[in-house]
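Hi all, posting the design record for the shared folder.

TITLE: backbone redesign
STEP: 1 of 1
STRUCTURE INPUT:
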């Protein structure tokens, strides 16, 4: 039970592991075994009668599988139990209408991961300022980059501790994501000002008070869209272009159905590393920017956007081909790279941490409505970056994203609110229970 004025908070911290080639092979085998365990569970679920699909029966099945198949035995026992719990949790989320049905995990499209559910097994020790040591099951002591103070040793107690971890692999190698539980003071209501934010392409985050948040180095293409590799330096861009040309040249010699050569796969890996580096820089910018906004403003107003529909292709059909398909494809890439949905998610939990509120308002016509005179005149939005009101009595001219941000804040002040995200950062009402899928009933 927490003390008065205090609350428990859980967050994750990710750090890079320093592994030898042998240790990498061991963790790779464990990750493949975890994926195989998931697929075996899914096959067992579909095969068993409805009244036999119980947690105890599934637990007995995976224990027998670990005895019969040496490959599955490479996965630690607790990690196998974590796969089982995650699988059953996936079905519960499906029944409650939050996700689709669980499915088989593909070998090449699934993120490789291994769960370590017990925090006490990690035995974390800080070696010095830059490195720490962690114990991994069936591997031993491994170094990791120490970039954040963790509640370990004398600093750890019942309320402040590491409850578990997960090993995750990306193009840059294996990382460990710690699950940290801390006891913090409940935030007081934020007394900061109100602000409207328009997520755009010309300006990543345009604020109604002109406190715009840009990338710092935002190169643009001639058509006004963002550069696809804007998070890479000129030398990295040149190297990426060279690698892509090499990959295209080597791929031209591969026959249909032939296995990819090691040389071509190595080129693909180098391209993935550069892409992953750009993604990390973009994510770092988002974290810094959303933290600054959550600390500065008490109420942040954003649009209720349907991003999935916004990035649909304009290609059309053979009978009715689309128009400006190439330009729309470039705009879709720019929208996807800005990751507006992830920005709103970060603002949601960070505003809750600092006592602020996130409000969503209707999106239609916010970029075409004049924030000065209040009229919507056709043709006022001249291009992606310019707004010029065509009302003869107005002639207001400004940046289109800033004009939309002012309209967003105005909608909130006059009460046109779709949803106000709760302080806990989750949907205010419980998700409606949908009918169970045929495979689950």
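Okay, here is what came back for every position:
SEQUENCE:
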């Amino acid at each position: 039970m927490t003390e008065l004025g205090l609350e428990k908070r859980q967050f994750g911290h990710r750090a890079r592991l320093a592994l030898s080639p042998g240790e990498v092979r061991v963790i790779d085998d464990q990750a493949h075994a975890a994926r195989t365990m998931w697929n075996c569970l899914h096959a067992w679920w579909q095969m068993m009668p409805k009244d036999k699909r119980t947690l105890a029966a599934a637990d007995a099945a995976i224990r027998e599988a670990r005895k019969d198949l040496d490959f599955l035995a490479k996965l630690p026992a607790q990690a196998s139990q974590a796969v089982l719990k995650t699988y059953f949790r996936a079905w519960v989320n499906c029944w409650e209408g939050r996700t689709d049905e669980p499915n088989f995990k593909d070998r090449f499209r699934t993120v490789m991961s291994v769960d370590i559910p017990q925090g006490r097994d990690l035995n974390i020790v800080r070696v010095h300022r830059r490195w720490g040591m962690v114990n991994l099951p069936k591997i031993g002591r491994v170094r990791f980059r120490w970039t954040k103070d963790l509640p370990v040793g004398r600093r750890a107690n019942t309320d402040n501790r590491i409850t578990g971890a997960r090993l995750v692999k990306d193009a840059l190698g294996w990382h460990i994501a710690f699950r940290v539980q801390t006891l913090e003071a409940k935030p007081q209501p934020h007394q900061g000002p109100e602000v409207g934010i328009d997520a755009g392409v010309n300006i990543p985050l345009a604020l109604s008070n002109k406190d715009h948040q840009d990338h710092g180095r935002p190169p643009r293409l001639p058509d006004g869209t963002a550069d696809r590799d804007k998070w890479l330096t000129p030398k990295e861009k040149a190297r990426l272009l060279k690698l892509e040309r090499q990959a295209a040249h080597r791929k031209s010699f591969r026959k249909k159905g032939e296995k990819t050569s090691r040389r071509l796969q190595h080129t693909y890996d180098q391209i993935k590393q550069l892409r992953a580096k750009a993604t990390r820089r973009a994510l770092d910018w988002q974290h810094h920017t959303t933290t600054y906004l959550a600390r500065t403003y008490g109420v942040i107003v954003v649009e209720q956007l349907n991003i999935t529909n916004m990035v649909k292709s304009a290609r059309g059909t053979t009978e009715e081909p689309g128009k400006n398909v190439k330009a729309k494809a470039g705009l879709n890439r720019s929208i996807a790279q800005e990751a507006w949905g992830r920005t709103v998610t970060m603002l949601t939990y960070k505003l809750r941490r600092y006592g602020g509120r996130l409000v969503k308002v209707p999106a239609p016509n916010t970029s075409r409505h004049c924030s000065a005179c209040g009229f919507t005149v056709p043709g006022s939005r001249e291009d992606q970056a310019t707004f010029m009101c065509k009302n003869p009595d107005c002639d207001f001219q400004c940046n289109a994203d800033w004009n939309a941000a002012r309209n967003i804040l105005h909608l909130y002040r006059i009460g046109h609110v779709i949803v106000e995200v709760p302080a806990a950062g989750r949907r205010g009402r419980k998700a409606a229970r949908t009918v169970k899928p045929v495979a689950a009933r």
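COMMENT: The first helix runs from residue 21 to 47.
Let me know if anyone wants the other runs.
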